[in-house]
C-alpha cells in the first residue's frame, strides 16, 4: 500500500469516483510535471451540497462542502496519475464560494479544502490559494475548487 493510500485509510477517507465533465472540457490536463484539475463542485455521497453562504448555508456547512470538493480534486489526481505518492506538491488551490454580496468569510470556508490537503499530503499539501466569492456556481453548488499539482 502506498504511503498516501495508507494515510487516507488512517484518516478513514474513501475517495469518491471521479466525476465526469458535464460540458466541453476534460477533468484534468497534464503538461510536463504539472497537473491542472478542473473545478470540482461540492458533490458528495449524499448528493450536491448546494446553496449560498450568507444566505442559509453556514460557514461550517461551507467548510464541509469545500472539503468534499477537495476529496473530488484528490480523486481526479488519482485518476490522472494512479498512485498518489506521485504528488510532489499541491501548488495552488482556487476556491469559488457561492455567496451573498455581503459574505466576507470565504477564506474560512475554503479552509475545508486546504486543511484536507495538509491532512492527506502533509507538508506537500501546503499550497498557495485564491478564494473568490461568486454570485452563482453550476447546479447552485455551494463551493467549487480547482487545483494545480506538481507530479513526478
UniProtKB/TrEMBL annotation:
Q: Which InterPro entries match?
A: Endoribo_LPSP/chorism_mut-like (IPR013813), RutC-like_sf (IPR035959)
Q: Where is the Endoribonuclease L-PSP/chorismate mutase-like domain?
A: 6-145
Query: Would you say which domain of life the source belongs to?
Result: Bacteria
Q: What Pfam families does the record tag this protein with?
A: YjgF_endoribonc
Q: What is this protein called?
A: Enamine deaminase RidA (YjgF/YER057c/UK114 family)
